Amino acid sequence: MTKGDMAYESFLKGYNCTQAVTVAFAEELGLDADTAAQLSCGFGGGMGRMREVCGTFSGIVMVLSWLYGYSDPKDVTAKKELYEKIRELAGRFKAKNGSIICRELLGLEKAEESAAPEPRTPEYYKKRPCPELCRCAADLLEEFIKENST
Predict the structure, then answer these.
(1) DSSP 8-state symbol, 117
(2) In angstroms, rounded to a whole number, what is the distance separating the alpha carbons of residues 3 and 81?
């Protein structure tokens, strides 16, 4: 099963978009699925359902940060290298989906009025590209990690 398949299935189980991506990579992060889900829970819906940066892309950034990040605030080389990786994956995600902005991907004019998540009904899944965006983000990230492991 690919990471994309895992992320897709996680979204369908009720995880938000960011959780779906991070849970797919929990093992690589050295985390259990519950910890990965809790760490990433606030980023869903474009950060707290504000429809800003797509949660699937936030998941990419979280995983990249854990795998390639730094902790020394003076390590500008590591910071630059991480930011380059983020920008590269942003470019790949945009090339496939047109944007990394949640509301643009959903065809919304503005942010949601309410913080309350919509019920996950069959109609919800018909109008939302989110499961496929979870798959796309996790597949791009899995490919990127393989490319950078040699």
Answers:
(1) P
(2) 24
Phi first, then psi, for residue 129 (nearest 5°) are: -85, 5
- Output the pTM of the full model: 0.95
- Measure the N-to-C terminal CA separation of the chain; round to a whole number of Å: 22
User: Which pLDDT score, from 0 to 100, does residue 24 have?
Assistant: 98
Q: What is the DSSP string of 9-58?
A: HHHHTT--HHHHHHHHTHHHHT--HHHHHHHHGGGHHHHTTS--B-HHHH
User: For 89-111, what is each residue's pLDDT tens digit?
Assistant: 999 999 999 999 999 999 998 88
- Give the residue among 82, 29, 135, 89 at the shortest CA–CA distance from 37: 29
Report whether 137 contacts 64 (CB < 8 A): no
> Would you state the structure tokens that stand for residue 23, as one six-digit string?
């849970």
- Which residue, chain included where needed, has tokens 């994956």? 89
Residues in the chain, total: 150
What CA–CA distance (Å, rounded) separates 60 from 26? 12
pLDDT band at 83 (very low <50, low <70, confident <90, very high): very high
